[in-house]
Write a structure and sequence with these properties.
Blueprint lengths: L16 E7 L10 E7 L7 E11 L1 H8 L15 E8 L11 E4 L2 E3 L5 H4 L10 E2 L11 E5 L4 E2 L6 H4 L5 H11 L7 E5 L3 H12 L3 E5 L3 H9 L4 E3 L9 E6 L6 H8 E9 L12 H5 L4 E4 L5 H14 L5 E5 L3 H9 L6 E5 L2
Parallel strand pairs: 10-11, 10-13, 11-12, 13-14, 14-15, 16-17
Antiparallel strand pairs: 1-2, 3-4, 3-8, 3-17, 4-5, 5-9, 6-7
Helix pairs in contact: 4-5, 4-9
């Protein structure tokens, strides 16, 4: 990929520079939408942290941004919102973090704190919410800024590549699991089995659920069974028993009626993605009658993140990682688009 030079100053190489990837021209991943960039080292604002990035997970949302499914909110944005880093500098008003601490930057970057949603503990629905790697530069880089109030303290003793996927794939999966209204000991269907699903499945199993995975890839089905799923079949297969709840992780609208039809009476389907292809026409009797529920999942609250990270540590969630050097970010997105990633893709600077 060619580097950007027209709009980006050329910093002195070394510690005063940030290297990474930006979404230059959104389009199919085969068209090369990412471009390499070098930018001056940013100064943290009063309530910001400057992180030296140790690892950054590759989320399907990054792919949607690169391919234009999510319209860019600013030009030449650096994607990435599953960021594990060390605090290199902190603003004057920062409390709770010191230089050298490990911190995590996630998708939810800021909210207004004043609207009725924020006041009710539903900040994920704040109309003024902003997002890392969409509204501001993210973690596909050697260094990045994150707001301290929206960062998570992370343990020192864990591999950064194992922590990174927890910061979006894990948190969003956790919210989707709660939105699915899974009863204790219930029957959960998971459609699609990538980064988020393989973490969510482990949490559901640990909580006593029977988990049935429906996904296109044979390798993903094998991983699901190894992580405790009761069954694993094709994406359009019928699960072996009616479902109390289901989560759709695959961004495929055609699977919505399939999942709804697999629900038992009063079952709930939660759609976890930020982007979904068009949903076909639903038949009321087959898909919605008998009080079946269809729910979306929108971002997360900081409380979701704190609760999930605590639960992940208690359960001992295993994170299956496919590591890539930062220089291979376009390849990581291409592999994600083609379904070639085993577990979660993670970029490693250096």
């Amino acid at each position: 990929m060619a580097g950007l030079t027209a709009d980006v100053p050329s910093p002195v190489p070394g510690r005063d520079a940030v290297s990474g990837w930006a979404v230059h021209r959104p389009g199919p991943i085969t068209s090369g939408p990412l471009a390499s960039v070098r930018r001056p080292l940013p100064e943290p604002g009063p309530r910001e942290l400057l992180l030296d990035v140790e690892a950054c997970g590759v989320c399907r949302t990054d792919l949607h941004l690169a391919e234009g499914d999510l319209p860019p909110r600013r030009p030449e944005t650096v994607p990435g919102h599953e960021i594990v880093g060390r605090v290199a500098a902190a603003g004057d008003a920062v409390t709770g973090f010191r230089v050298g601490d490990r911190a995590g930057g996630a998708w939810l970057r800021s909210t207004c704190g004043m609207c009725r949603y924020c006041r009710a503990g539903r900040e994920n629905l704040c109309p003024a919410s902003r997002y890392t790697g969409w509204d501001a530069d993210g973690g596909f880089a050697t260094r990045t800024l994150v707001p301290a109030d929206y960062a998570y303290p992370l343990p020192d003793g864990q591999d950064a590549t194992q922590l990174a996927p927890l910061l979006c794939a894990g948190i969003i999966g956790y919210r989707a699991l709660r939105r699915s209204a899974l009863p204790p000991g219930g029957r959960l269907g998971i459609y699609g089995f990538g980064a988020s699903a393989h973490l969510t499945a482990q949490l559901a199993v640990a909580e006593g659920a029977r988990v049935h995975v429906l996904t296109r890839g044979a390798q993903a089905r094998e991983l699901a069974l190894g992580l405790g799923a009761s069954s694993a079949g094709g994406a359009y297969d019928r699960p072996p028993e009616p479902l109390d709840s289901a989560i759709l992780f695959a961004p495929v609208g055609d699977l919505v009626p399939v999942a709804l039809e697999a629900l038992d009476r009063s079952g709930t389907l939660a759609v976890a993605g930020i982007h979904l292809t068009d949903i076909p026409a639903l038949n009321y009797q087959r898909h919605l009658f008998q009080e079946r529920n269809l729910r979306s999942v929108t971002s997360n609250t900081r409380a979701d993140g704190t609760e999930f990270l605590r639960a992940a540590a208690q359960v001992g969630i295993q994170v299956t990682v496919s590591p890539y050097q930062l220089s291979r970010a376009p390849e990581a997105l291409a592999d994600l688009a083609a379904g070639r990633v085993h577990g979660a893709a993670v970029l490693i600077p250096g």
